[in-house]
Each structure stands twice: as C-alpha cells, then as structure tokens.
Amino acid sequence: MGRVTLLNGRRFKMVSSTASEVDPDAPTEFEYWEKDGVVWGAYTGDTVTVGRFVGTRRDDRVTITYVHALVAGGVATGRSDSRVEREPDGRLRLVEEFRFAGDDTPHVSVCTEVA
C-alpha cells in the first residue's frame, strides 16, 4: 500500500469497541485525509462531541494520536495502531488497538468504510 493516498477522503463508522457500547443508530464517524504517509482527520458521534487525530501510515499500518471531547464531559486522549483490511465488497476496514492516556487497559475497535 506504500505511499499511495489510500485513506484520503474516506469515511468510516465504528461498528464495535471494547471501550464502550456502540450506538448502531448514531455511531462515531471518522473522516480521514492523507498525504505522503501523514494521516489526519476528525470524528464525532455516539460518546464523542468532537475529535481530532494525526499520525502516519506505512503500508497497512496506521499509527495516530487522538484527542476528543466527550458528550458526558471531559476530554480523552490516547494513541492507536490500526491494521487496514479489505472487506469482501472492496470497502476498507480499520481494526484498531488503542489505549487512553494514563490507562494501561488495551482496547480494540473496528470501523468500516461508509459506502
């Protein structure tokens, strides 16, 4: 997958997370941008009022640092490593392993590309 702008302009929605129950009617949605191996974007929905992230992609691995405001109040920050996979229909899926800052509990979420 190299330096191709694989994620640029793509949107994803969260379908599962070990950190919280995902609202299927209003899941967190992410928009990715990418140039020269750098990725950045924004997300909102479900438990998140507004979120931002920045990081890098190398081949099928995405590493980001994120910060978001919570609907319940407060802010969450952390770091994640995602694996880019392809769904049988050609859409992308991100399988993300993440930890919140100050918490050593590992979490996993799955996001699928919005068609």
Provide structural commentary.
With 115 residues, the protein is mainly β. The protein is built from no helices and eight strands. It has an eight-stranded antiparallel barrel. A hairpin with a 5-residue loop joins strand 6 and strand 7. The chain starts with 10 loop residues before the first strand and ends with a strand. The model has no long low-confidence stretch (mean pLDDT 95).
Quick structural gist:
By secondary structure, the protein is mainly beta. It has strands spanning 11-17, 29-35, 38-45, 48-58, 61-70, 75-86, 92-100, 107-113.
Structural class: mainly beta
The total count of strands amounts to 8
Distance between the terminal alpha carbons, to the nearest Å?
20 Å
Biggest sheet architecture: 8 strands, antiparallel, barrel
Order of helices and strands: EEEEEEEE
Major beta sheet, strand line-up: 1-2-3-4-5-6-7-8
Low-confidence stretches: none
Q: Report the C-alpha radius of gyration, rounded.
A: 13 Å
Helix content: under 10%
Q: Please indicate the percent range of residues in DSSP E strands (runs of 2 or more).
A: over 45%
Helical region count?
0
The residue-averaged pLDDT reads: 95
The shape, in one word, is globular
